[in-house]
Amino acid sequence: MGLIIDTSVIIDIENKVESTIKKIYNLSRLHNEKGSISFITYYEFMYGIKKKSIKNQQRLILKIKKYKLLNTTEKTPEIILELKYKYDKLGMILPLSDLIIAAQTKEHNHLLVTKDSHFKKFDEIKKEII
Asked: Residue 57: which pLDDT band, with cuts at 50, 70 and 90?
């Protein structure tokens, strides 16, 4: 099983939060891989660095490109719709970005590593909330 690293964890790694780095290191060793990111995480990261200097942008782009980027497939929107329908029916309106991350986690049968407790809602995915 692979890892999907959420934006919140990527930010912690960039900010050198030792507890997060240690947890990712241990999970990476356990799962024998560095981790992947959803295309939405890539987008959020790139959006977040736009106000930084060109030099810092270039440095951060090199870091984010070390992760394998999971792109969408024809199955991804089907899973998004399945999740959206289920949670809408339960009266839970979820952001599209969370639905995309959850869908890609489910589609690839990965473990989502996040700091965002709102992912607890998704019982269809494996997750490690740190």
From this structure: very high
Map residue 93 onto helix, strand or coil.
Answer: coil
Report d(CA 41, CA 102) in Å as an integer.
Answer: 12
Domain count, the chain: 1
% residues pLDDT > 90 (the chain): 88
Dihedral over alpha carbons 61, 13, 71, 27 (to 10 degrees): 140
Greatest extent of the chain over all pairs of C-alpha atoms, in Å: 47
Strands 68-70 vs 111-114: parallel, antiparallel or unpaired: unpaired
- CATH number, domain at 38? 3.40.50.1010
Number of neighbours of residue 24 by Cβ within 10 angstroms: 22
pLDDT at 32 over 80: no
Q: Across the strands, what pairs with 114? A: 129
Residues of the domain holding 69: 3-129
